[in-house]
Amino acid sequence: MANVKELSDADFEAQVLQSSQPVLVDFWAPWCGPCRMVGPVVEELAAENAEKISVVKINIDDSPNTAAGYGISSIPTLMIFKGGQVVDKFVGLQPKGRLQSAIDAALA
Q1: Which of 19, 38, 48, 100 has the highest CB neighbour count under 10 A?
Q2: Is 59 considered catalytic here?
Q3: Is the pLDDT of residue 10 over 90?
């Protein structure tokens, strides 16, 4: 998980909204089976795109304010932020290729 940072409500704005590069945010919880299944995919994407994007995880149990602020009602929810705005959103398990395509679109 070297390429994936764990964030909290306190550092979300600085690390995501003020980031100069696109950010993939994984909203998850340790008790969520699908979240644990998508975790390795998120880590692979972080490693493969390390120079181009930031990848972060937010545990919704520990940081409920950010999750509530973005209307997260199902997890895993993955969002791509660019320039402080949500440019893509995925709910539930997603194929790696679909997420990579969204990352590529955010980089374009």
Answers
A1: 38
A2: no
A3: yes
